[in-house]
C-alpha cells in the first residue's frame, strides 16, 4: 500500500470544524480537569462523533506502525497509551446513554455502530506492522523497568490472544465473528430492556396486603409515571423482591415471580434464546480459531483462576454445603407454613415470604423492622464516613456546579487526607424507564500519572425505587449492602494511583474483591450509631435489633449461595461446550439437573436474562468471579478482625497501598500475598457463609 493510500485509509487526524460544531468531540472543559457535556448530549450528535473519533484513532495507530525509527518503549508504547483518547471520551458518554438513558434512538445507534466498533478495533489488533513493532519491544523488554516491562508483556499477550499472529484469512474470519457478536450483544440488550420495562399493574390495593407502605408508594409512583392508575410492579429486582418477601397474596407472588424469571423467555419478539444460541456458537468458533479448547479457556487466560477447572473446583467445593443448607431451610419453612395451617409445597415464589417468617420466629427479626433505619440519604453519608475514616477520602457535594445527564444525579468533589483533589464522584440512584436493571459502577475517565496526567471521574448506578413526593427514600438491608458494594468499586477507582493507563484494569476475578470487602463496614456499630437512624424519631438502631441482625448473618445462606452458584456454574458449563451448539432453554434445564439444583430456587440470573454474559464478553465464563473475589474479601475482613478493629489504621493503610491504589501494576495474586502474607484461605469464605469449614 502506498503512503498516499495509507493516509487516505487513515482519514483525518481530526476535523477542526467538526470538533467545533459537535460538543461530543470537543475536549471536556470546565472545572475538575474537564467534565462530560451531559447537558448537550443528543442522539443526533453521535454518528459524526463516532466517525471522526474512529478516524483520528486509526491515524494515531497508523503513525505508530509507520514510524521508521527503531522500535522502543517511547515510540511504540507511550503513543499507544495516548492513542484514541477522543474516542474514549465519546464512548464514555455513549455508554451512559445506552445504560442509564436508553431509548429507541440510542438502540438504533448501538445496533448500527457496534459492529463498526468491533471492525475498527480488529483493524488495529490485526495490523502486522503495528504488532511487529510491539513484538520487537517485547523481545527486548528486559532492559525496561518493572512497570514498563509489565505493560509490554501484558500488551503483547493481549494482542496474541486477540489474534495478532493469525494469517490474513484467519484474521478476516475472526473479524467476522467479532462483528457478528457485537450485533448480537446489542440485540440481546435491547430485547431484555424491553422486557424489564414492563410491569404488572395491580388495581385493587387489597392484593398488596402485607407489602410495606413505602413499597406501595413507589409502585403507585411507577404507575403514575406510566400514565396508569393503581400500582405498577415493574419487572426489575428492586421492585419485585419486596412483593415476594412481604406480600401475603400467594397468587400475586406467583404472578410477579413468573414474570420476573421469564424475562427474555416468552416466545415473543423479545425472546432471547435464539440470540443466546448464536452468541455461544460464535464464541466457540472464535476460541477454536484462536487455538483454545473452549471460550472459557480463552476468556480465563488473563484471570487469577487461569482455567475453568480451578473456578469449577472452588464452586463445587461450596455447592454441597449450600444445597444441604437449602434442605434445612425448606424444612423450616414447611414447618412454619404447616403451623399456620398451610399444607403447601414450598415453591420459588414462596421462598422469600416464608424465609421472613422463619427469620421472625428464630431471631425475632422482621426485615420490615429494619427499613425505617435505612434512609437512603443517611446510608450514602455512612458510606462516605467509612471511606474517610479508613482511607482519608472526603466527599463534598457539588451537585448543580457541573452538568448531569438526569436531574436526580448527584455529584461530589473528592479530596484525600491531605486536602488534595482526587476526582469527581457521580451517583445515579433511581430506577426509571430506559435504565438497565441492577447496580453497577463505571468511570467516565480513569486516573493516570503519565503525561498528560488526569484525575478520575467515577460513578455508581443503582435502581432504588423512588419515593412519593415529600416522602423519604427507605431502602432494605440488601439494598444498603448493594450501595456499599458499588461504592467499593468507586473507592477502588478514586484511590488508584498508576502511571500507565494500560496497567489500570484488574482481572475479572479480582475486580469484585474491593467492592465485596467494602460491604462489611455497613453493619459496624460506629456506622449504625451515626447513620442508621429511624427516619421519624432520629433514634439510632437499638443494640438489641443489631444483635438480631448479626445473629442472623448466616441465615438463609443456602438460598443466597445456591441462586448465585446456579448461575455461575451454568455460565461455566455453557462456555465449556467445545462446539458451542446449544439450545439455551434445554441446556439450562439439563445443567441444573446435573448439579442437583433445588427445585425451590431459581437461578439468580436465568440464561434468557443473563445480561452479564450476553450484553458483552465481559463476564462470560466469569460469573464465578464473585465467589473467587469473596475468598479474598472474607480473608481480608479476617485481617481486620485479627487486628482487633474494623477501623485498624495499619491494616487499612496496607490494604489501600498494596491492593487498592496499584491497579494491575503487579500480579494481583502476588499483591494479595504481599498484603496478607499468604494465599487467601477459602475457609474464611465458608465461615462467613456459615458453612462447615472442614478445619
Describe this structure in words.
By secondary structure, the chain is α+β, with helices and mostly antiparallel strands. The chain contains 30 helices and seven strands. The strands form two sheets. The protein has a five-stranded mixed β-sheet, sandwiched between helices. A two-stranded antiparallel sheet has the order 1-2. The chain is globular. Residues 1-12 have low confidence and may be disordered.
Task: Compose a concise summary of this entry.
This protein is of the alpha+beta class. It has 30 helices and seven strands.
How does the SSE layout of this entry go?
Layout: H1 3-10, H2 16-21, H3 46-66, H4 73-82, H5 85-100, H6 104-125, H7 128-139, H8 146-161, H9 168-196, E1 199-202, H10 213-225, E2 231-234, H11 237-246, H12 250-261, H13 273-289, H14 295-299, H15 308-339, H16 348-363, H17 367-370, H18 376-391, E3 394-397, E4 410-415, E5 421-430, E6 440-445, E7 456-464, H19 477-495, H20 508-511, H21 513-518, H22 525-531, H23 543-551, H24 557-574, H25 584-595, H26 611-614, H27 625-643, H28 649-660, H29 668-676, H30 682-688
Parallel strand pairs: 5-7
Antiparallel strand pairs: 1-2, 3-4, 4-5, 6-7
Name a few traits of the molecule.
695 residues, alpha+beta, five-stranded mixed sheet, two-stranded antiparallel sheet, 30 helices, globular, disordered N terminus
Amino acid at each position: 500500500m502506498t503512503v498516499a493510500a495509507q493516509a487516505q485509509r487513515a482519514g483525518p487526524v481530526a476535523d477542526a470544524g467538526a470538533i467545533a460544531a459537535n460538543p461530543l468531540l470537543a475536549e471536556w472543559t470546565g472545572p475538575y480537569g474537564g467534565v462530560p457535556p451531559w447537558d448537550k448530549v443528543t442522539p443526533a450528535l453521535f454518528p459524526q462523533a463516532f466517525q471522526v473519533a474512529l478516524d483520528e484513532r486509526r491515524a494515531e495507530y497508523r503513525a505508530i506502525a509507520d514510524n521508521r525509527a527503531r522500535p522502543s518503549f517511547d515510540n511504540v508504547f507511550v503513543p499507544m497509551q495516548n492513542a484514541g483518547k477522543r474516542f474514549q471520551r465519546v464512548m464514555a458518554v455513549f455508554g451512559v446513554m445506552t445504560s442509564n438513558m436508553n431509548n429507541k434512538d440510542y438502540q438504533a445507534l448501538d445496533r448500527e455502530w457496534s459492529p463498526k466498533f468491533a471492525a475498527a478495533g480488529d483493524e488495529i489488533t490485526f495490523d502486522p506492522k503495528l504488532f511487529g513493532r510491539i513484538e520487537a519491544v517485547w523481545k527486548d523488554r528486559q532492559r525496561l523497568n518493572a512497570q514498563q516491562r509489565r505493560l509490554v508483556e501484558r500488551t503483547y499477550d493481549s494482542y496474541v490472544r486477540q489474534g495478532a499472529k493469525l494469517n490474513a484469512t484467519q484474521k478476516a474470519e475472526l473479524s467476522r465473528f467479532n462483528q457478528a457478536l457485537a450485533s448480537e450483544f446489542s440485540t440481546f440488550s435491547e430485547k431484555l430492556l424491553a422486557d424489564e420495562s414492563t410491569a404488572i399493574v395491580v388495581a385493587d390495593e387489597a392484593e398488596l396486603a402485607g407489602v410495606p407502605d413505602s413499597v406501595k408508594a413507589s409502585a403507585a409512583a411507577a404507575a403514575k409515571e406510566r400514565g396508569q392508575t393503581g400500582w405498577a410492579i415493574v419487572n426489575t429486582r428492586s421492585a419485585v423482591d419486596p412483593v415476594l418477601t412481604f406480600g401475603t397474596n400467594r397468587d400475586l407472588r406467583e404472578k410477579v415471580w413468573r414474570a420476573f424469571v421469564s424475562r427474555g423467555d416468552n416466545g415473543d419478539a423479545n425472546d432471547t434464546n435464539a440470540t443466546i444460541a448464536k452468541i455461544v456458537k460464535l464464541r466457540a468458533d472464535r476460541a477454536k480459531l484462536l487455538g483454545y479448547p473452549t471460550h472459557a479457556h480463552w476468556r480465563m487466560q488473563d484471570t487469577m483462576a487461569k482455567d475453568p477447572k480451578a473456578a469449577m473446583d472452588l464452586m463445587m467445593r461450596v455447592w454441597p454445603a449450600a444445597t444441604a443448607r437449602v434442605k434445612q431451610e425448606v424444612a423450616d419453612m414447611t414447618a412454619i407454613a404447616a403451623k399456620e395451617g398451610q399444607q403447601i409445597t414450598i415453591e420459588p415464589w414462596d421462598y422469600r415470604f416464608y424465609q421472613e417468617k422463619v427469620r421472625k420466629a428464630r431471631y425475632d427479626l422482621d426485615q420490615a423492622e429494619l427499613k425505617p433505619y435505612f434512609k437512603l440519604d443517611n446510608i450514602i453519608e455512612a458510606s462516605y464516613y467509612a471511606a474517610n475514616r479508613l482511607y482519608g477520602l472526603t466527599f463534598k457535594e457539588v451537585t448543580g456546579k457541573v452538568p448531569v445527564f438526569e436531574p436526580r444525579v448527584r455529584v461530589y468533589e473528592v479530596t484525600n487526607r491531605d486536602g488534595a483533589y482526587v476526582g469527581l464522584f457521580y451517583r445515579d440512584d433511581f430506577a426509571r424507564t430506559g435504565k438497565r436493571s441492577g447496580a453497577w459502577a463505571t468511570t467516565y475517565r480513569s486516573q493516570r500519572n503519565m503525561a498528560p496526567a488526569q484525575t478520575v471521574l467515577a460513578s455508581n448506578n443503582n435502581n432504588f425505587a423512588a419515593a412519593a413526593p415529600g416522602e423519604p427514600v427507605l431502602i432494605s438491608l440488601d439494598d444498603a449492602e448493594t450501595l456499599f458494594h458499588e461504592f467499593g468499586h468507586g473507592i477502588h477507582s478514586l484511590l488508584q494511583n498508576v502511571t500507565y493507563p494500560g496497567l489500570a484494569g484488574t482481572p475479572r476475578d479480582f475486580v469484585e474483591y474491593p467492592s465485596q470487602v467494602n460491604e462489611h463496614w455497613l453493619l459496624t456499630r460506629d456506622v449504625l450509631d451515626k447513620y442508621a437512624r429511624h427516619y421519624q424519631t432520629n433514634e439510632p438502631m437499638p443494640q438489641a435489633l443489631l444483635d438480631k441482625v448479626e445473629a442472623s448473618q448466616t441465615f438463609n445462606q443456602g438460598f443466597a449461595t445456591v441462586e448465585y452458584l446456579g448461575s455461575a456454574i451454568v455460565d461455566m458449563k455453557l462456555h465449556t461446550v467445545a462446539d458451542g451448539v446449544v439450545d439455551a432453554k434445554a441446556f439450562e434445564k439439563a445443567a441444573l439437573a446435573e448439579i442437583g439444583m433445588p427445585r425451590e430456587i431459581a437461578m439468580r440470573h436465568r440464561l434468557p436474562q443473563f445480561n452479564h454474559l450476553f450484553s458483552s464478553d465481559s463476564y462470560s465464563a466469569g460469573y464465578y468471579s464473585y465467589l473467587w473475589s469473596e475468598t479474598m474479601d472474607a480473608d481480608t475482613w479476617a485481617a481486620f478482625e485479627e487486628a482487633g478493629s474494623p477501623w485498624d489504621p495499619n491494616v487499612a493503610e496496607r490494604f489501600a497501598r498494596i491492593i487498592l491504589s496499584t491497579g494491575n501494576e503487579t500480579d494481583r495474586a502476588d499483591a494479595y500475598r504481599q498484603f496478607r502474607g499468604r494465599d487467601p484461605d477459602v475457609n474464611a469464605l465458608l465461615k462467613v457463609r456459615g458453612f462447615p469449614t472442614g478445619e
